[in-house]
Amino acid sequence: MAHQQSDPQVIELKDEFQWSEGVSFDPEHITLEGAYTDQLSAYRARKVWLETFETNFLLEPEHDFSLKVCSSFEDNKFALKCQFLTACARYAFWRLTNNQAPEAQYIIETAHIPNAELRHDDFLQAPDLKSVHEAAIIAGVERATREVEENTRGLAQMLKKLVSTLVTR
What we know:
The protein is of the alpha+beta class. It folds into 2 domains: 19-128; 136-168. It is 50% helix and 17% strand. The chain is built from 6 helices and 5 strands; from the N terminus they run αββαββαααβα. Strands 3-4-2-1-5 form a 5-stranded mixed sheet. The longest helix has 37 residues, at 132-168. The model is unreliable at 11-17 (pLDDT under 50).
């Protein structure tokens, strides 16, 4: 059977990973990252995260942790990144990511949502905190599923053509 050789494809990162709104954590780099579709949500979340870390964990900004908003206006993607710098901050990170501070975790997950009666459903539907590895695995499985579906579609067409050729002989 002849093997078709294809030219290498350049895949952009935006095609590789799905951008999903919500908060994820990276246990290797000890960071939290919030992904938002508008700048106002990112800065609203920054304010709430700052207050949460100060009040719930007694952390000091710039000493224990750093917060930074990264903006991509052309793609409408805004990220809030928090890096935990000291031992106390790393313990707070551990508590957040291991369900030891559920109130603070909920506040961080819903920090981008305005506090209004009309937004009640948004609070209920806010995505849970997830590991970046978990998100990458889910994106990889979705990508692999799409590729299998595309490949089987081509294989099915090839088999139909082969069968029709054999039948007509």
